[in-house]
Design brief:
Length: about 250
């Protein structure tokens, strides 16, 4: 069973009198536990696809399934609750609250989960700050942290809800090479240790090299699926945009 499935997804935007097709009839399925990179040039549609997978945006046409349950057309409140319980987000610009400490930023998404007690929140904050190596910086605010440390806080925040999926939009774009590589290594370790699914929108070759699945988007369509076999990419170029992330082309 797929963790995420999109079927016949098309996304169009109106720009003045012009209609822009960001995604064009895409069908994909993602298995649990993958470390997947969605790659492509600027404007290719990769971030739009990530936002649709994360239920931040709705497709113009097509259907989206999470754990084989269709989520397309659900109310904004229902989608917000689904995101809060299943999906962690990591952004290029960190998106931390500047007035909150590292620990308060990590705790913030847990405040929207009434079933998580204050004591449980405290334990999760301590645990995931430790996972990202920032337990000594719990009381620091973002302006007291380096770029790499802020991204680690963002990772801890994403993990605090114990998500099935972490969506990362260009997470290394604002980091220097050394810091970016260490952040990627950290996320790969989390993927292996916790089995958390990571899906990246990226044009960073380091992310692609570390991924075990690669989907290349061009002009809103799937151009290539890569499956890593013995540290080499096995490329499957589908006859249409219908692709699975495990096994052969659909």
């Amino acid at each position: 069973m797929s963790l995420v499935r999109v079927e016949g997804v098309t996304k169009k935007y109106q720009l003045g009198e012009q209609t822009i097709t960001a995604l064009d009839d895409i069908t994909l399925s993602f298995e649990e536990g993958v470390f997947l990179a969605i790659a492509g040039p600027s404007g290719s549609g990769k971030t739009t696809l990530l936002n649709i997978i994360g239920c931040i945006d709705n497709p113009t046409q097509g259907k989206v399934y999470i754990d084989d349950v269709e989520v397309t057309g659900r109310s904004p409140d229902t989608l917000a609750d689904l995101r809060a319980r299943t999906t962690g987000f990591i952004f290029q610009n960190f998106n931390l609250f500047p007035v909150l400490t590292a620990s308060e930023n990590v705790e913030y998404p847990l405040l929207h989960l009434p079933e998580v007690s204050r004591e449980e929140r405290r334990k999760r904050v301590a645990k995931f700050l430790s996972v990202v190596g920032l337990e000594k910086y719990a009381d620091n605010k973002p302006n007291q942290l380096s770029g790499g440390q802020r991204q680690r806080v963002a990772i801890a925040r994403a993990l605090a809800i114990k998500p099935r999926i972490v969506l990362a939009d260009e997470p290394t774009a604002n980091l220097d090479s050394k810091t970016g590589s260490s952040i990627l290594a950290l996320m790969k370790d989390i993927n292996r240790h916790y089995g958390t699914t990571f899906i990246f929108s990226t044009h960073d070759r380091r992310v692609m090299a570390m991924a075990d699945r690669l989907i290349r988007i061009e002009d809103g369509r799937v151009a290539m699926l890569g499956v890593k076999v013995s540290d080499h990419w096995k490329s499957v170029r589908p006859p249409s945009s219908s692709v699975k992330t495990q096994g052969e082309a659909a």
